[in-house]
Design brief:
The chain is α+β, with helices and mostly antiparallel strands and 383 residues long. The protein folds into 2 domains: 222 residues, Porin (Beta Barrel), CATH 2.40.160; 107 residues, OmpA-like domain (60s Ribosomal Protein L30, Chain: A). 23% of the residues lie in helices and 35% in strands. It has 7 helices and 14 strands. An 8-stranded antiparallel β-barrel has the order 3-4-5-6-7-8-9-10. A 4-stranded mixed sheet has the order 11-14-12-13. The chain has a two-stranded antiparallel ribbon with strand order 1-2. The protein is elongated. The termini are far apart.
Amino acid sequence: MKKFSLLLITALFAFGMSAQEVQNVSNGTVYLKDKASDHWYIGLGGGTNLYLTKAENDADASFGDRLGWMGQLEVGRWNSPVWGTRLVIDGGHIKHVANVPFGPEQNWLGGHLDIMWSMTNALGGYNADRVWNLAPYLGIGYMYGLDEDWKKPNPNGETLKFQNQSLTYNVGLINNFQISRSVALFLELGWRVMQESFDGSPTSGDYDYDSMLTGTAGIKFGLGKQDFTPAELMDYNLINDLNSQINRLRAENEELRKRPESCPDCPEVAPAVTESVYVPNVVFFRIDSYKIDKGQQVSVYNTAEYLKANPNATVKIVAYADRQTGTPAYNLALSEKRAKAVADALTSEYGIDSSRISVDWKGDTEQPYAENDWNRVAIFFAE
């Protein structure tokens, strides 16, 4: 049993440390890795406990006469929408109705380290605004028995020897009721197992244990950012298409590099004065999105630089949606959002006057590219 306790303690610490170093994944959804100071909380509560042994259960006493009181302070962190760890410091008063060597009144102090599993998020999907969340927990802890005056039961003994103390094994259910992103009420039901010598009874075997039911309620306060943000992943088909274009251009450059550098003498031609020519830029979008990804911002930037270099020039933005996803009505509205998002980026991020920008949207009625995925696009046209 001691080996099991050591193994459980090691696992709890290892989980708490490693969970902060990996990217959060829940139900197949990848979440952004937040700062180490995010997703912490502190809780304060109080409640009751019921000491359970055969002698206590057989004693002639009412249920109310057996209830003691307790309080707890906890600090925890949700390392992902599903998994979390916490440290609980608790203490309270036990009412013994059986004839135990310790006497009818016993106080205690202790604590436990737990792994928490959000059953609600694991089975129902993560929802930052969900009011009720259920989280079972499993952990290991320690209890130190004290007399009714909160003193050592053996005043002449050493602090950590023969003082009615025990490792505990803890399981329970936490009900969290969210009031806001940073405040929640909780109702917790727990069960802990300790050595039978905790109440002063002599040990009759290596595996003889007593147990205690606990019930607490209180309030929790979030520290730092509390919600998890899903990562917005790039469409892999689009990435592959763009990589194909890059590889094709590299191949063309390689062919040009093989051509001879010398050429026959040509008559000199007077340089012609030409105005800068604007080559249309494009902004590709992820499926069902009108947010401009960082990798596409360069097209907006180049267009803005062109307009700044040519004060009399104007630009038209035409946006599209691919035909293989969504209804025509939905795609028309989506392409409108894409066109306006690009126009807004030019005005708000680069200071281009809105009078120099016009927008149009085609939905899926027109498909500028033969490749379906390429049609999730907004195209700039110089006017």
